[in-house]
Write a structure and sequence with these properties.
This is Zinc-binding metallopeptidase. Pfam families: Peptidase_Mx, Zn_ribbon_DZR_6. By secondary structure, the chain is α/β, with parallel strands linked by helices. The protein has three domains: about 60 residues, no CATH class; about 130 residues; about 130 residues, no CATH class. Strands 7-8-10-9 form a four-stranded mixed sheet, covered by helices on one side. Strands 1-2 form a two-stranded antiparallel ribbon. A hairpin with a 5-residue loop joins strand 1 and strand 2. The structure holds zinc ion (2 copies). The site of one zinc ion has 7 residues, from loops.
Length: about 325
């Protein structure tokens, strides 16, 4: 993520709607990826700014949409007459804006469902009804299908995520991580399937047959033995598509965090500009060691609870070539 400043010089964050020093109202312009002071701009604010969602994104003056580029990707939200769902929606949108920022910054196509009715991107934030005695069905599963990303709205609750993480023996579980993962399935359809990259995908990630069976097997019998040698996470060992989505999410974690570190002067800009992937990975290793050491000093869990095997780095390099067009 870039680093942002108000016109007064004060450092401000991506989520801010006003400067904490001079109180100027602020908004984020997704076309330039910059924070701007509203009084000095002709841009319009997102319709969800003065709402519990509190979106700070802006809309070009000539654009007739009521909501910003990120908010209008959302197709369904959980029932808003239930107070906890209002908070959940806000948490989910906040993480989604970070996802959309990264996608735009990396130059990836972000085509909405209204632009492409069959395969455009849309988000359904759905509430699970399994604890509601009046509703016998409608279980919600986080996933992706033909551009529609479904996220179980309860993932916005920290207590739920911690419990699920421990039950499933995961190392990392965040809303942003879920969204990055599901975007991986979307971009697999867009960029890999039926493309010149497909055969290399298969040679690196494997044959993607029997998806259902593979997932059933994973949930019944657990991850592949020694999964760490070939996969970024245990779940990635369930099937090549999940391996791809997990590795893709990881690539987005790396690129966003490296940008933040560069903006704060922890990494030299030349190292990133040269974008030699090997060098990038060396910088990443140093940075993550530091992040974990800092977290431990604060009595927190590791910020980066992963180790990158050689095979995982080869997969990440493939994604880097696909997205950036160089290695
Ligand atoms: Zn200011
Ligand atoms: Zn918005």
């Amino acid at each position: 993520m870039k680093r942002f400043h108000c016109v007064c010089g004060q450092e401000v964050f991506f989520e801010d709607k006003a400067c904490s020093y001079c109180n100027n109202p602020l908004g984020f312009n997704p076309d330039t990826l910059k924070m701007v002071v509203l009084t000095r701009s002709t841009l319009r604010t997102c319709g969800l700014r003065d709402h519990a969602v509190g979106c700070n994104w802006l809309i070009a003056a000539g654009d007739s949409h009521k909501q910003c580029r990120s908010c209008r990707l959302t197709r369904t939200v959980p029932a808003q007459d239930i107070p906890i769902n209002v908070r959940r929606w806000s948490v989910l949108e906040s993480a989604k804006r970070r996802l959309v920022y990264s996608l735009i910054a990396l130059g990836l196509p972000v085509v909405s469902r209204t632009q492409d009715l069959n395969y455009g991107l849309a988000f359904d934030f759905l509430e699970d009804q399994r604890t509601n005695p009046l509703v016998k069905k409608s279980l919600v599963y986080t996933g992706h299908h033909n551009g529609v990303i479904t996220l179980h709205a309860v993932e916005a609750d920290e207590a739920h995520r911690v419990t699920a993480r421990e039950q499933l023996n995961e190392r990392y579980r965040t809303v942003l991580g879920h969204l990055r993962h599901e975007s991986g399935h979307y971009y697999w359809d867009k960029l890999i399937h039926n493309s010149a990259w497909y055969s290399r995908f298969r040679s690196l990630f494997g044959d993607e047959e029997n998806y259902r069976q593979a997932l059933d097997y994973y949930y019944a019998c657990g991850p592949a033995p020694h999964w760490q040698k070939r996969h970024i996470s245990a779940y990635a060992s369930s099937h090549p598509w999940e391996d791809w989505a997990e590795t893709w999410a990881h690539y987005l974690h790396i690129m966003d965090t490296l940008e933040t570190a560069t903006e704060f002067g922890l990494i030299q800009q030349d190292a990133v500009d040269a974008s030699g992937f090997t060098l990038l990975m060396q910088e990443w290793r140093q940075l993550t060691l530091m992040m974990n050491a800092l977290n431990r000093s604060m009595g927190q869990r590791d910020a980066y609870p992963f180790t990158l095997s050689r095979q995982v780095i080869v997969k990440l390099r493939f994604i880097h070539q696909l997205v950036i067009g160089s290695d």
